[in-house]
């Protein structure tokens, strides 16, 4: 019963979030702030994780290639397709649910327990829309860009690590990442990123907005937000892969 | 003027407010007093619409708030200002941006006019050199004063204060009380303050409602409060022996 109640509350909140803003200019300014806070400030962590992810993936593919008849270019190709199809979208989505999601939940949750949201309501501001809509727009816009950066850094990671440990030559790796490229994989993953961006921002905001109590409850809400977002990302990954690939 | 009629409010079958009626006058500091947990905050939040009441009527200058739709309520809320217990300033904005926020959201003033209004309000609450500081960088008393400045920046007709003195030292509490009282009189607004601070009651209590266990127990003003025969009120007021002595002195004279 609780899950139905919560789902109902989530959609009721979304209805409030997507109602007409009071002052467009303030919402636009807020959206740019969120793009910087949630998007631009995530570039560093995306780059670091992606470089390691690409490097490790390259090593894994290389060590599992026991058949000498297979061309070494497969290492680059395998790394590229894994990054494009799954790692830079889904795995990055799971990581961003932790980074961006917990940030959103704790920020909105703290505002709730310190009566800042009540304060907005008293002023006649639609607090749900003012606080959540810019975050959703920012994350949905930025997540595909972070995905592209992740693929880029992942490939660079493979290019650094593979030749450095002697798993693949630079030429083989570069030939690999250029061969049998299917552009639809990118389109498919970009579509996933839009969905994941929406899930991360809206679910996290929901848990923050509905928190009751104090600092301990904000912490609990953050954890619940990350867990629920991760589950939803995996469920929607499965659904979208089945529908679009 | 705000009038509440026969208000009832319950949470999960627990009655928190029971049949409360009262008229809060314009240009006066109206106080809701009572022990912690007596239902003061619930009453205040019900009056401003943060809690939906189960039964009763709330009238803002004869406009029925309870039967209003969301759109009309939002319009009416632009005539309200509220100072929350913890100040409720926006952490991510500076003092000046906090005060300016309602103007940015709702007024059609030019940037220069907004700045003048912000400066006027900050000056009114005696905040001079903290414009660019963040709420975490100023004291609790200053936060309350900034919250008051923000609540009056749109020239509200109604001002609500939830425990404005909580966590403040006696001297700062007195400054805040005097500030709220002078703003109320100068701007002729209807002010409702929630408090359990007897000093505030004796300083600025023009019109007082005492509630106990969610029920209306007594109403009057600061001159009458010491001489009331109401048992529950006496227990509340004379918990501080100082007021017992003040009453005894006055009676003996």
TrEMBL record, chain A:
Record carries keyword Zinc: no
GO cellular component: ATP-binding cassette (ABC) transporter complex
UniProt keyword annotations, A-Z: Membrane, Transmembrane, Transmembrane helix
Keyword Membrane listed: yes
GO molecular function terms noted in the UniProt entry: phospholipid transporter activity
Membrane-spanning parts: 38-63, 136-164, 184-207
One Pfam family cited in the UniProt record for this chain: MlaE
Protein name from the UniProt record: ABC-type transport system
Organism: Aquipluma nitroreducens
Taxon lineage: Bacteria, Pseudomonadati, Bacteroidota, Bacteroidia, Marinilabiliales
């Amino acid at each position: 019963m609780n899950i139905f109640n919560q789902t109902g509350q989530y959609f009721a909140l979304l209805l409030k979030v997507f109602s007409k803003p009071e002052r467009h200019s303030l919402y636009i300014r807020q959206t740019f702030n969120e793009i910087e806070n949630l998007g631009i400030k995530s570039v560093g962590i995306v780059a670091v994780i992606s470089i390691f992810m690409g490097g490790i993936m390259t090593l894994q593919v290389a060590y599992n290639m026991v058949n000498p008849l297979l061309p070494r270019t497969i290492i680059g190709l395998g790394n590229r397709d894994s990054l494009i199809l799954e790692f830079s979208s889904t795995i990055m989505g799971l990581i961003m649910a932790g980074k961006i999601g917990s940030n959103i939940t704790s920020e909105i949750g703290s505002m709730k327990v310190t009566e800042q949201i009540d304060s907005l309501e008293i002023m006649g501001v639609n607090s749900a829309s003012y606080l959540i809509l810019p975050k959703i727009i920012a994350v949905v816009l930025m997540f595909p860009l972070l995905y592209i950066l992740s693929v880029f850094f992942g490939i660079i990671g493979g290019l650094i690590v593979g030749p450095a440990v002697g798993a693949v030559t630079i030429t083989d790796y570069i030939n690999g990442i250029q061969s049998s490229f299917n552009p639809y994989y990118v389109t498919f993953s970009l579509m996933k990123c839009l969905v994941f961006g929406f899930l991360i921002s809206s679910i996290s905001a929901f848990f923050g907005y509905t928190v009751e109590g104090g600092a301990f409850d904000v912490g609990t809400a953050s954890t619940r937000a990350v867990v629920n977002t991760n589950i939803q990302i995996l469920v929607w990954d499965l659904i979208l892969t089945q529908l679009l690939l | 003027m705000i009038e509440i009629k026969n208000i009832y409010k319950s949470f999960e079958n627990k009655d928190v407010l029971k049949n409360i009626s009262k008229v809060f006058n314009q240009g006066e500091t109206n106080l809701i007093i009572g022990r912690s947990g007596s239902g003061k905050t619930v009453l205040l939040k019900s009056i401003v619409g943060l809690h939906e009441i189960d039964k009763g009527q709330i009238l803002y200058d004869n406009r029925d708030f309870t039967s209003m739709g969301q759109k009309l309520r939002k319009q009416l809320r632009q005539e309200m200002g509220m100072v929350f217990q913890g100040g409720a300033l926006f952490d991510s904005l500076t003092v000046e941006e906090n005060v300016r926020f309602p103007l940015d959201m709702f007024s059609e003033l030019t940037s220069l006019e907004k700045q003048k209004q912000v400066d006027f309000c900050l000056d009114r609450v005696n905040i001079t050199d903290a414009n660019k500081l963040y709420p975490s960088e100023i004291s609790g008393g200053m936060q309350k004063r900034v919250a008051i400045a923000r609540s009056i920046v749109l020239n509200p007709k109604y001002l609500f204060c939830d425990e404005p003195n909580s966590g403040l030292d006696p001297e700062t509490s007195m400054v805040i009380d005097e500030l709220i009282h002078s703003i109320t009189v100068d701007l002729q607004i209807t002010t409702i303050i929630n408090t359990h601070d007897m000093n505030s009651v004796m300083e600025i209590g023009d019109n007082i409602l005492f509630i106990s266990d969610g029920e209306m127990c007594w109403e009057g003003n600061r001159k009458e409060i010491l001489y009331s025969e109401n048992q529950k009120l006496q227990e509340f007021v004379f918990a501080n022996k100082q007021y017992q002595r003040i009453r005894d002195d006055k009676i003996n004279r």
